[in-house]
C-alpha cells in the first residue's frame, strides 16, 4: 500500500518510522511519502492560509498550495505505478472513523492524507478532488485537535495492522474490540499473563482450567460486562438473538 501525507508539519509524522508502521515500511509492505505543503507556496512567507470569506475567527487553508501539492503527489504516484488513490481529510466534522472504515481503507492500494491546521481547508479543494477519486472526510472522535496530523497517525496505524502479513499472528485481530464476527461490536474483556500471583492478586481460575468452552464463555461474559459498563450504545445495537438467558440475568 502507498501512503502520501501532505502537511505543514512533516516532523509530526516521524512516528511513522516506529513500531508496527515503521516495521511494515522496512519490510516494503507500506510505501510512505511525507511532503511539506509549504514546498508548493510561491511567496516569501510561504503562506498557506488566509482570512475566511464571510468573516469570523481563524484562518482557512488556501486552494493554491493544496491543489498544486495534490496534483504533484498524484502525478508522482501514478508515474511510479500506483493506482486508485483515495483522499483522506481528517476533520472534526467528518464521518466517524470506525473499525469498519479502517477495514475499507485497508483494502485500497493508495491513500493520500490532507491534514489541515487552522479552521480547515477551502471547501473547493475537497469538491475538486471528489470528481476524480473517493474523498473521505473522517473524524477520530468528538473533540477538537489543533490539526489533523495526530488523526493521520491514528488512521494509519489502524489501517496498517490490518494489511496482510503486518501483524505477527494473523489471528490477533480476530477478537479485537469492534472486529466483525462472534464478538461483534463487544469490547474486549481483561487479559492476564504470568506470573499467576502478583501482589496478592490471582488470575481467574477458569483461565487455568484448560476447558476451552468455559474459557470462551467467560471471555464473552466479561466482554459483555465491560461493554455494558463503558459502551451501552454498542450493547443496544446487538441483535436480540446475540444474547441468551444467562446474559439477560447479568
Ligand atoms: N482535526 C481536528 N480535530 C479532529 C478530529 N477530532 N478528528 C479528525 N481530525 C481532526
UniProtKB/TrEMBL annotation:
Q: Does the keyword S-adenosyl-L-methionine apply?
A: yes
Q: How does it assemble?
A: Homodimer.
Q: Which family does the record claim for this protein?
A: Belongs to the RNA methyltransferase TrmD family.
User: What job does the chain carry out?
Assistant: Specifically methylates guanosine-37 in various tRNAs.
Keywords in UniProt for this one? Answer: Cytoplasm, Methyltransferase, S-adenosyl-L-methionine, Transferase, tRNA processing
Q: Which residues form the tRNA methyltransferase TRMD/TRM10-type domain?
A: 1-236
Q: Has UniProt tagged this entry with the keyword Electron transport? A: no
Protein's name according to its UniProt entry: tRNA (guanine-N(1)-)-methyltransferase
